[in-house]
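Lab meeting prep.
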Amino acid sequence: MSTNYFRITLLRSAIGLPTKVGGVLRALGLRKRMATVYHPVTPATAGQIFAVKELVEVQEVDKALTPKEMKDLRRPETGYYVETRVQDLRAANKAQ
């Protein structure tokens, strides 16, 4: 049986909002902006998300990523690359 998950990312802070909103975010495990957590799709979780819908971004995914997998997704590719388009433009300008 495949369980779907909510991928919840906190986009806005709860500073200045009622204490209840901060409590809902803590219950979801969201403490810092841009933090991402995964929760199984349940009516209880959906109700919590609905209470803070203006502060979070929610996606439904098939599998929850581990913290290591999320870190690997954010890591840039190693090395560098040379853009040849810049060289093409310089050659075109010299030809004129």
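Slide two material, second protein:
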Amino acid sequence: MQRDPLIVGNIVGDIVDYFDASARLRVLYGNREITVGSELRPSHVASQPMVQITGLSRSFYTLVMVDPDAPSPSDPSEREYLHWLVTDIPEGGDVSRGTEVVAYESPQPTAGIHRFAFVVFRQTVQQIIYAPGWRANFNTRDFAAFYSLDAPAAAAYINCQREGSCGGRRYR
């Protein structure tokens, strides 16, 4: 039996509760489509990705991108750091057709390997969603509840660490 990579990567648990996917999420950085748990460097994710959501026809979706490991995986005191928030994305459309509420901030991890999660919610109605006053300590669950969003429709994540790091721990 194959384990769900969102559970293995603790996206389910740290950011969202378990859900049954009802949409397909495609995230492309340049011409590279990510797979759940892809390892990318900051130089790969410097520019905003192309994101496409395929789900229920005539639906609108909200995309949240967060770093649950900020500022470092061993001390995630800023969990969850909000990197991007886009609402009113039409089904089958790219995020560029939605409303960018919080501009894309490229991942720049300074310590350890960070997970950057993309979580998609189906909106029950088109509505005005306001930008939070800060990016640190965003809470995806509270956000979804506050705006009466459905359970997550899809999610994915990448792993990212600073340029030039080897992926292992350094000992002195």
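Talking points for slide two:
The chain is about 10% helix and 35% strand.
The CA atoms of residues 62 and 132 lie 15 Å apart.
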